[in-house]
Amino acid sequence: MVHYPAWDQDEARSIVSGLSHLEGATLPILHALQEEFGYVDPQAVPLIAEALNLSRADVHGTISFYHDFRTTPPPRKIVKLCRAEACQALGCEAVVDELAREHGIVVDEHGGPEKAAVETVYCLGNCALGPSALVEGELLGRVDADRIVALCGARQ
């Protein structure tokens, strides 16, 4: 699990100014902020807009268009569950249903940084061993709801 520093407006300003000279700098800036802090705080929007001479709406639109950008601190652990066709054929939707019904874990619903989250991804390249999951860089095959719950940790 990665631990990120708290959002720091001065550090964010430094990141923005350090990358604002790049052509098409919006995405590199957003990636750098998220890499540093684990998310892109809404306070970054006016910083980026001003540095790149964009509207706040343009910057916000970019953040909201790309589903990987977070605007709140990330969960303490992320379990990526494949829901592509091969994993569907091997029961991933039953896993998703059981997680919600039996464990109260709703896939793609995020709480605060104290929680774990289960996110949908489409294809982890482990099709023969589905349903598959990815946790902290480790690819796992033949996961079921109980294993996902265990991967999320005791606190949920």
UniProtKB/TrEMBL annotation:
Keywords: 2Fe-2S, Iron, Iron-sulfur, Metal-binding. It comes from the Bacteria. Its cofactor is [2Fe-2S] cluster. Belongs to the complex I 24 kDa subunit family. PANTHER family: BIFURCATING [FEFE] HYDROGENASE GAMMA SUBUNIT, NADH-QUINONE OXIDOREDUCTASE, E SUBUNIT. This is NAD(P)H-dependent oxidoreductase subunit E.
